[in-house]
Specification:
Distance between the termini: 223 Å
CATH class of one domain: Alpha Beta
Structural class: alpha+beta
Radius of gyration: 65 Å
CATH architecture of one domain: 2-Layer Sandwich
Keywords: Hydrolase, Membrane, Protease, Transmembrane, Transmembrane helix
Order of helices and strands: HEEEEEEEHHHHEHHH
GO molecular function, one term: peptidase activity
CATH superfamily of one domain: Band 7 domain
Pfam families: Band_7 (PF01145)
Organism: Lacticaseibacillus manihotivorans DSM 13343 = JCM 12514
Largest sheet: 3 strands, antiparallel
Strand content: 15-25%
CATH topology of one domain: Tetrahydropterin Synthase, Chain A
Protein name: Membrane protease subunit, stomatin prohibitin family protein
Shape: rod-shaped
Number of helices: 8
Strand order of the largest sheet: 3-2-5
Length: 308
């Protein structure tokens, strides 16, 4: 009886352990951002969404948990040849997420590897149609073209490429040295052009300044000459006005005392004759008569005649 009891006890413990293991293995917890693939005897049955699930053991089995989050992938550096036969080394990064679990798991042996291979092949084709200078200065164009091409291809892999980014583009050291020399030469050329342009602009500005100074000086001289001419004209006008006033005054005087003025002039003429060396002066009788009409001279002549 004791032996039988021991055997039954062992069997009971084993059964309990088996049941516990079965229950434990039948419980599945799928985390957020993931899905579980359930198979029954090797055949796909369903996709488990995030949460708590009980899967009957032995017959049913969760074969794979698929991450549905966006996944970054660093693609190994590869060598490609440009259109002008220059070898460049390019590395890129992809960001993708799984869109079709069935296609990702069952229709492709390795969807990620297929995506990487297509990416590298498409990149070779893109770079092969571009010159080195275009490759170095056109990373955004390369990214956009590569993204468009692989987005169409990877849709069949159950993947969606969200972003493609060229991380680095490297060239051979000798090519890099040549490019650096060319860049330095180009910069020196641009500096010389800018310096020459600066001298040119300075010369133009100087010439413009001298031109403006000459114009201003000529304008000033012109204004000076105009003012001088106006001054001379005004002076001559004033002199003419004065002469005119004198003439008018003389004319006015002659209009009232013309005879007396002529008689006065006869006296001045006689005075000049008297100062001469001649002892005898012959005068016409009209001159003597006109002298007599001057009051002072008339009195002298009258006195002389009375004495006689």
């Amino acid at each position: 009886m004791n032996i039988l009891s021991i055997v039954l006890g062992v069997v009971a413990v084993i059964v309990i352990l088996i049941i516990a293991v079965i229950l434990f293995t039948s419980v599945a917890i799928i985390h957020t951002g993931e899905v579980g693939i359930v198979e029954r005897l090797g055949k796909y049955v369903q996709t488990l969404q995030p949460g708590f699930h009980v899967v009957p053991p032995i017959i049913y089995r969760i074969t794979e948990v698929v991450n549905m989050k966006q996944i970054p992938l660093k693609v190994d550096e590869q060598e490609v040849i440009t259109k002008d036969n220059v070898v460049v080394r390019i590395s890129e990064t992809l960001k993708y997420h799984i869109t079709d679990v069935n296609a990702y798991v069952y229709q492709n042996k390795d969807s990620v590897l297929s995506m990487v291979q297509d990416t590298r092949a498409n990149l070779r084709g893109i770079i092969g149609n571009m010159d080195l200078n275009d490759v170095l200065n056109g990373t955004e164009t390369i990214n956009q073209t590569l993204f468009t091409q692989i987005a169409e291809t990877t849709a069949g892999y159950g993947l969606n490429v969200d972003r493609v980014n060229i991380d680095s583009i490297k060239v051979d050291t000798t090519i890099q040295d040549s490019m650096n020399k060319l860049l330095r030469a180009s910069r020196e050329k641009e500096a010389n052009i800018m310096e020459a342009e600066g001298h040119k602009q300075a010369a133009i500005a100087k010439a413009e300044g001298e031109k403006q100074a000459s114009i201003l000086e000529a304008e000033a001289n012109k204004q000076t000459q105009i003012l001088q001419a106006q001054g001379r004209a005004e002076s001559q006008r004033l002199i003419a006005e004065a002469v005119k006033d004198q003439i008018n005054s003389i004319n006015a005087g002659l209009a009232h005392d013309g005879d007396m003025y002529l008689k006065y002039k006869n006296v001045e003429a006689l005075e000049s004759l008297a100062k001469g060396d001649a002892n005898t002066v012959v005068l016409p009788s009209t001159a003597i008569d006109s002298l007599g009409q001057i009051p002072a001279v008339g009195q002298v002549l009258a006195a002389t005649q009375t004495k006689k």
